[in-house]
Amino acid sequence: MIQRLILLVAIAAGLLGLLLISRRTGQAQRVSGFIEVHEIRLGSRVGGRVAKVHVEEGQTVTAGAVLVELEPFDLEQRLQEAEALVAQRQAEYDRLRAGFRAEEIAQARARREQLLAELEKLRAGPRPQEIAAAEAEWKLALAELELADQKLKRTRALLAQNSATQEALDEALAQWRVAQARVTARQEQLDLLREGTRREDLRRAEAQLEEAEQAWKLLEHGYRSEEIAEAQAALAAARAARDAIRRQIEELRIVAPIDGTVEAIQLRPGDLVPANATALTLLDTSQMWIRAYIPENRLYIQTGQQLWISVDSYPNERFRGEVIFVARQAEFTPGNVQTPEERSQQVYRIKVLIREGKEKLRPGMAADVWLPEPG
Fold first, then answer.
1. CATH superfamily of this structure's domain 26-67+263-370
2. Rounded to whole angstroms, how far apart are CA atoms 30 and 35?
3. Beta strands 272-273 and 260-265, pairing class
4. pLDDT band at residue 15 using 50, 70 and 90 as cut-offs
5. What is the pTM of this model?
């Protein structure tokens, strides 16, 4: 019994010694993680029905390559309408900025000169020659009246002697009446000329001249700055609406922003793609890195330090990597990270950029980052 107890104690002491030795010499020489890349989720801001799909899963594409095309629906017609509106707004803005044509200004100036001459004529009144001519016409009418009166008297005397007919008397009477009316008209015309221009006619002519003067100045000065600014704003709004439609048409083509590999695409012609939704996923394989976690006793690792990387797919090869990030704050060890320390121990996240072997390595591979001994 005593011998069995001594044997158990010896075995326990041996195991304890091995455990202590493993704790002293079994510090982690490597940490594990997974190879990661940037994942770009591509889609369209307008959405629509799929017209063409140019790529498949796993296909390598270059920046600018068209991956998926959507049907334009009514966007092309809306663009034509917007282009026409821009042209209309541009023409209106150019017309206002150029002002009125020289022919329009000359026409307004001529109209003003014409009305000015009319006003000056009214202010001057009738000329002496016009009054003299009117007097002469009045005297002529008096003479014609006197002649018609004498003829009428002779015809009446002859009719009394049965030497003239009633028809001749009627004709002489009509001529006398015409001559009498002509004398009255000539007298009134002469009176008007002697009285001069009426005040009402002068005021009307002055108002017409003022109107023509302002119209001429308006044409010379051109359009108001507020009208030009309004036309300019309308042009800018039309251009913005047109550019928005152009941008929507550009969104009908889902284009690769970088060189990469198509990770996931499940589209076929005829499928509907919602706006602002992911249509396919692209992996940026130009940069690969490993996210790993180191214990506190390995914090001598610094950014820029070169480390070796190994993967299970190539057991006899190592690839060079560079530390590009070391966390400033500790965290608890994630459950999917393998380290020889206890899970409760706090670790620091590092990011190791893969500098070589990217043509062999693939995203998602498990990788080991080998840590050097402090020294």
1. Efflux pump adaptor protein, beta barrel domain (2.40.30.170)
2. 15
3. unpaired
4. very low
5. 0.59
